[in-house]
Amino acid sequence: MTALREIICSTQGAIDLQINGALGIPFNDLDRDRAAKLPEICRFLYQQGLDGFLPTLVTTSIEQLHRSLFFLAEAIAYQKQHPDPLEAKILGVHLEGPFLHPDKRGAHPQEYLLSRLNFNTLRRVLGDYTSIVKLVTLAPELDPSGETIQYLRDRQIIVSLGHSTANAEQTRMAIAQGATMVTHAFNAMPSLHHRDVGLLGEAILSDQVWCGLIADGVHVSPEMIKLLYRMKKQIFLVSDALAPLGLPDGTYPWDDRQITIQNGTARLPDGTLSGTTLPLINAVNNLIEWGVCEPENAIKLAIESPRLAMNLAIDQNAPQRLTWCSYSFSCAMKAEFAPPNFKDVHTSWVCEVN
After folding, report:
1. In what helix (H) or strand (E) does residue 210 lie, and over which residues does it extend?
2. DSSP β-bridge partners for residue 53
3. Mean of the pLDDT values across residues 139-162?
4. I need a surface site. Which of 14, 268, 314, 349 has the fewest CB within 10 A?
5. Is residue 229 exposed (0-12), middle (13-18) or buried (19+ Cβ within 10 Å)?
6. Mean pLDDT of the region 307-335
7. Which position has the higher pLDDT, 341 or 199?
8. Cβ(54)–Cβ(19) under 8 Å?
9. pLDDT at 332 over 60
10. With respect to CATH, is domain 13-318 assigned 3.20.20.140?
């Protein structure tokens, strides 16, 4: 067997806008000891190919939320004062909750969800940490007035629609008020329907809206991902990785519950999907292997698209530290011994992190 290596392109590092933890540390449950491991996590994520990320805080008590925000604010300030070129940068915080519809909560604990979305509850959740919150996932139907979306946008916080039962009309209103993202497309939202395209359908129709996507093949099937890509180009990949990212498959504590990781997919004991331990770079490889799009376009969904969705500058002079390669393996086999549909050349895709 021989292998032929071909370089597709070199790029700067990826950006992950939805990552809930790593190396056993959940971002929404930080204390002083756990926060001390944030630099190690940033170095680990850099080695996995990330230039930056948004620590994502899933629904928890407001007290615990503020505690985690406090330690993340410290970490962000420290990175600014002492930049380390070998660390992924904490770009801010993504609040995925607590303003989610209980019927679409997924793995979020119902007891901490807030069903009233208004100025008072929003200020209470943000506390003193408005400046580091860059992205908020919310269910727009919880605020029929829509005033809170404008409130967030006025503070340069991007609004993503998710964990929602919103219909098409409610979604159109939210987009008109300034929502520009959808959180993990297809998951925790109504399915597309021929008489009401719903939240996702309206997002697909709007050039203003970017759709985050978990491309592990479990949260969304490869065929549905192909369909989405044909319908919409404003897509970015997310890992939705949980605290066991970087750890072996197994069962781990998650708030007062447990999650089981099997082949990189996380589930609660009742089978509810709760996330992944999928490195973001692997999602790019999946899109290529499934034939969703050309390699160059799959790469953009992890490199350029998240930056565009967050209005981050794309630095053309940034270090091109990811080398995207294809390896073609040639296997000689006599025709009489070859199994049905045998291919004598197999191509695999690799991202080499420098």
Report:
1. strand 210-214
2. 16, 90
3. 95
4. 314
5. middle
6. 79
7. 199
8. yes
9. no
10. yes
